[in-house]
Write a structure and sequence with these properties.
The complex is a heterodimer of chains A (130) and B (386). By secondary structure, chain A is mainly beta. Chain A folds into 2 domains: 47 residues; 82 residues, OB fold (Dihydrolipoamide Acetyltransferase, E2P). Helices cover 8% and strands 42% of the residues of chain A. Chain A contains 2 helices and 8 strands; from the N terminus they run H-H-E-E-E-E-E-E-E-E. The termini of chain A are far apart. Chain B has 2 domains: 140 residues, Peroxisomal Thiolase, Chain A, domain 1; 219 residues, Thiolase/Chalcone synthase (Peroxisomal Thiolase, Chain A, domain 1, 3-Layer(aba) Sandwich), CATH 3.40.47.10. Chain B has 14 helices and 11 strands. In chain B, helix 1 packs across helix 3 and helix 7 packs across helix 11. The chains are: A mainly beta (130), B alpha/beta (386). At the A-B interface, strand 4, strand 5, strand 6 and strand 8 of A face helix 5, helix 6 and strand 5 of B.
């Protein structure tokens, strides 16, 4: 991934910055120009909470090349405490430890090592709580 | 809007076609289609060609030009249509609308994908998902459907055996299809014990990587009547989009875009799900067929799994699904799939489906094509004209 493409997503990947619609209050992650809920075009930046629960999940056994060294790994859709959902890996978890309803927290991790001249790629993963 | 007919179809064999380049795949399907329709190729005025990602698979873009050149269609106007795995269905709809509008009389709807030329297919296909917020996090395409499967299993009690029943049934049908990539029967056990791809999906829950092309020729019904050959009429064409990211959809055990496209097609056709005699469904993964048969209204929500296991979707079942073998057995050259579905519906409606021909002469057939994890879908309803 070239660095400008990586750089512009940093507020979301490092700080979970989202956009709250000034019209209806719907929170969008990542931010967007038009509210899916009410069509509003004005937003205020807000940060997502870090706790949530797994709403569905899978264990990837056959990954694309950049993730080959991490297989098998768990990927889940996590619903955060404010209802916003995102897709991420569940770190440090044996596959059978993650199920629908598992409580997790969002943490900061390296996601891909990158190839050749590419930048190291960081972002969020989930971790099972408790 | 004019009534529109399909007057001929053509397919290449589906499979690992190492000796056939992208350009020849399309030419082969086009020539077969023109021969089937029994018209002069010079009558074709325009073409829409579905292809998902030839740029990644074989580093070739500007497809309308190269494909029409090698198929002998220059200098007609032609457009490449992309909607991930629904590219073929979207191309078919574009061709339908051009004929219906009165702009052209003879329009070719094509689809092609050359997937076996050394590219990383898992990577290429994942571009149908959200690059920054799904793929960046290690999700694969099977992974997205696996997450739909887990949600469906959790909500409705759908089982791995019910998923496997879809693959077994589609291979049973595909074994009767001379175009199929994997025309062999398999057992439930083969599916359940297949190599894990993305839990709960194994390799035999997944459609294969395939080279292939298809073409269909459309013209106004009034023109088709004078050709003196069997044809089918397009009575409903539905198309819808949804969020590209699975996590942005409220119900993860559903694929709402399919229901929306279907409602538009049903409404235009003035028919309901009970009127449909058979359907080609986008079974890119076994769970997709189960959810789509629910979205199309053939079964209540949560009943797709038991219905597949009980044989309701078999060739002799209540609503035969994927008589062609579906994407699972016939193969899934992504851009061509939507057109191949139309070809199967055409053959069934005109009594040309050979060993897999439905016994009770079908009157209404449906083709449902889908892009990504449900970011787009087309649904077409075709009626035989006797």
């Amino acid at each position: 991934m070239i660095s400008p493409r990586y750089h512009r997503e940093i507020p979301q990947r490092y700080r979970l910055e989202a956009a709250k619609c000034d019209g209806c209050g719907k929170i969008h992650f990542p931010p967007r120009k038009v509210c899916r809920e009410c069509g509003g075009e004005s937003f205020t930046t807000t940060n997502l909470p870090s706790r949530g629960k797994v709403v569905t999940h899978t264990t990837i056994w056959i990954p694309p090349a950049p993730f080959e060294d991490q297989k098998p790994y768990v990927v889940a859709i996590v619903e955060l405490e404010n209802g916003v959902r995102l897709t991420c890996m569940v770190a440090e978890a044996p596959p059978d430890e993650v199920t629908i309803g598992t409580e997790v927290e969002i943490i900061f991790r390296k996601l891909q090592s990158g190839r050749d001249w590419e930048v190291l790629q960081y972002g969020y993963k989930a971790r099972v709580v408790g | 809007m004019r009534d529109v007919a399909v007057i001929g179809v053509g397919l290449t064999k589906f499979g690992d076609l190492w000796e056939t380049p992208l350009r020849d795949l399309f030419a082969e399907a086009t020539l077969a289609c023109v021969k089937d329709a029994d018209i002069d190729k010079k009558q074709i005025q325009s073409a829409y060609i579905g292809c998902m990602t030839s740029g990644l698979f074989v580093a070739q873009e500007h497809l309308a030009s190269i494909l029409c050149d090698y198929a002998g269609l220059n200098p007609i106007g032609a457009t490449r249509v992309e909607s991930a795995c629904a590219s073929g269905g979207a191309a078919f709809r574009a061709a339908y609308l051009e004929v219906a509008s009165g702009a052209s009389d003879f329009v070719l709807a094509g689809g092609v994908e050359k997937m076996n030329d050394g590219a990383d297919a898992t990577y290429c296909l994942a571009t149908a998902a959200d690059q920054e917020y799904e793929v960046y996090h290690g999700v694969t395409f099977p992974g997205l459907y696996a997450m739909i499967a887990h949600a469906h299993m959790h909500r409705y009690g759908t089982t791995a055996e019910q998923l496997a029943a879809v693959a077994v049934k589609n291979h049973r049908n595909g074994a009767k299809n001379p175009y199929a990539q994997f025309p062999m029967e398999i057992s439930i056990d083969t599916v359940l014990k297949s190599v894990r791809v993305a839990e709960p999906l194994g390799l035999m829950d997944c459609s294969p990587v395939t080279d292939g092309a298809g073409a269909a020729l459309l013209c106004p019904v009034e023109v088709a009547k004078d050709l003196g050959r069997p044809f089918v009429k397009i009575i409903g064409s539905g198309h819808a989009t949804d969020s590209i990211a699975l996590h942005d959809r409220a119900d993860l055990a559903a694929i709402p875009v399919v229901g929306r496209a279907a409602r538009r097609a049903y409404e235009q056709a003035g028919v309901g799900s009970k009127d449909i005699d058979f359907c080609e469904v986008h079974d890119c993964f076994t769970i997709a067929e189960i959810v789509c048969t629910e979205e199309l209204g053939f079964f209540e929500r949560g009943h797709g799994g038991p219905s597949a296991a009980d044989g309701l979707t078999a060739l002799d079942g209540q609503i035969p699904i994927n008589t062609s073998g579906g994407l699972k057995s016939k193969g899934h050259p992504v851009g061509a799939t939507g057109i191949a579905q139309i070809a199967e519906v055409f053959w069934q409606l005109t009594g040309q489906a050979g060993e897999r021909q439905l016994k009770k002469s079908p009157r209404l057939g449906m083709a449902q094509n889908m892009g990504g994890s449900g970011g787009s879908s087309t649904v077409h309803i075709l009626e035989v004209v006797s």
